[in-house]
Amino acid sequence: MRSKTSNFNIQLQCYVLPSITTSLPASHIYYDTLLIPDNVCLADPTFNIPSEIDLLIGADVYGDLLEADRIRLSNGPYLQNSKSNVDTHLRKFWELEEVVNSGSVLTEEERQCEEYFIKTTTRDNSGRFSVRVPLKESADVLGDSYERAKSRFLSLERKLDKSPSYKRLYSDFLREYNDLGHMSKINEYAWPHYFLLHHGVFREHSSTTKLRVVFDASAATTSNKSLNDIQMIGPPLLNDIPRLELCGALLGARLYRKILSSLRLTFTKVYFWTDSTIVMGWIRMPPHNLKTFVQNRVSQINDLTGDAIWLHIKGTDNPADIVSRGLHLNELQDNDLWWHGPAFLQSHDIEWSNNVVIDNEKLPELKVQHASMVCSNQNSDCLVDFNRFSSFNRLRRMSAYVLRFIGNTRVSKQDRKTGSLSVIELDAATIMLARLAQLQSFNSEYSDLDKKSVVKSKRILGLNPFLDEFKLIRVGGRLSNCNSFNNNKKHPILLCDPNDLQPLTPAHFLIGRPLTAPACRDLTEISIHRLMRYDVIEQMRQIFWKRWAKEYVAELQTRTKWKTRQDSLAINQLALIKDDNLPPLKWKLGRIIRMYPGTDGISRVADLLTSSGITRRAFSKICPLPVSP
């Protein structure tokens, strides 16, 4: 028991009884006659109203609850200062076990529907319950529904014939529906009758349920009346049935713990089975997201079962389901499911995995999550503040969920995307982020390219930029005709340079890092799967600086004449032929004798006459010697 106004708390051992005493006080006390000061906070503000007693505290504890202060009222009684206000905690305790009584808030139609349900529901010899449809109007008001049902059925068949996977799932569903006894074949039917339409919601790439069959009792007949129109609307369904199944799961967890403590055996893996997908969803969720009743029991189940795995089992394969359905003793003695369990447990090919995907958003008994939105006009020119994210993967996933939300607002509810993010969604987020980064870094250049006008800025003019089909700026140039490269390698996406203020020193050319950095062994030739995360990053750094030191000098040779589509080399010009395997002083000297233009009219390859013969090299390997005027 804990005070809600101070840090005082005390543990009590309580006994739960049907009734402690009669209502107290015995009669209503007129509050105004007591003249209680307005600044006094009462432990029980409704002490004057006769009501049930929730908790009887013994004399061994009562003294600890009293403080020294007390106030004598002008008409006699005393106000005693106490440490605890137990009203809130008692209310939470009783609400924990309480099943909501909705009888006082039912509409007249809901009340009639509930009474009809109680009067007409029966249980047959097999243990099944039989429930009659509560009609508020006679079924005679229904018109003909056959022609509409036939038309929809033929349309559905044509749709299924176009998709074999869709048809297979639909057929499997109807076959299972029939095997479970939810429907049966008839050869004739009397008046009145109603043909119940159905259709499927098929998502081939869904990571959850691919097919959901929807029965449509709202389809109107020729009299403009549907089956739904003539039914009574009952009260909202309570969560008694899932709560009972959760209590059954808790009972099983306690039984498991009892058996485990009695056996002298050690188990490497423990599996629990339940036929309730709701219970599975609760157990897999963090308890703090659940309401009190479910939260407490899920926490107990987690404590009792530890890292055990919970799996789903069909109700028809669950021995415990026999108890709830009921079975005659003469049938029980020959029931193989009861005595030996489901047949698949005796197989060696059991699927020991989480075999059911559950949409947590549709689970009952979830706490209401309150969200707040704060709007700011800072960085109004930037849709995404890249500086707020230290992880690109987190930034990409956030962007993918934003794109999904936008997409879901533009389609019908049944076509909305849910579940885990797909590769397609992540790729779309990456493209969007790259486009936003280019808009922030190359806004004027992007505008020129988007308008298909000449790029005025000289920052990227030498890169021969262009916009691809995703509206991304890519680098053009001499690799366009290289068929052995993919498009990303021939035309990389243009992104801004990092704002690294570390100075570039000669040490970067010699060891690939500042001289003050700790030394590290050469990792460039080691297979990546043998490296830890830090070494993988170090390997990437080493490979980068190795290439940078080798290729940077050539990159300094800016091809300014290419911007005006003129050759940077000339016939009979002397040049050094770059060789990555030799120092510059050993590079061969040659004279350009022939050049080969590409499809765009720009030459990028030339033949050179050297002391050892004619050799052909790309312009990137040719370093022209300066010529005096």
Quick rundown:
Helix content is 32%, strand content 11%. It has 629 residues and is of the alpha+beta class.
Helical content, roughly? 25-40%
Q: Radius of gyration in whole Å, from Cα?
A: 39 Å
Beta content comes to 5-15%
Question: Domains counted in the coordinates: how many?
Answer: 6
Largest sheet: 5 strands, antiparallel
Number of strands: 15
Strand order within the widest beta sheet: 14-13-12-11-15
Helix count, per DSSP? 17
Assembly context of the chains: single chain
Distance between the termini: 99 Å
Can you put this structure into words, describing what you see?
By secondary structure, the protein is an alpha+beta fold. The chain has 6 domains: 98 residues, no CATH class; 82 residues, no CATH class; 120 residues, no CATH class; 105 residues, no CATH class; 50 residues, no CATH class; 65 residues, SH3 type barrels (Roll). Helix content is 32%, strand content 11%. It has 17 helices and 15 strands. The chain has a 5-stranded antiparallel sheet with strand order 14-13-12-11-15, with no helix packed on it. The protein has a two-stranded antiparallel sheet with strand order 1-2. It has a two-stranded antiparallel sheet with strand order 3-4. A hairpin with an 8-residue loop joins strand 5 and strand 6. Helix 6 packs parallel to helix 8. It is extended. About 3% of the residues have low confidence.
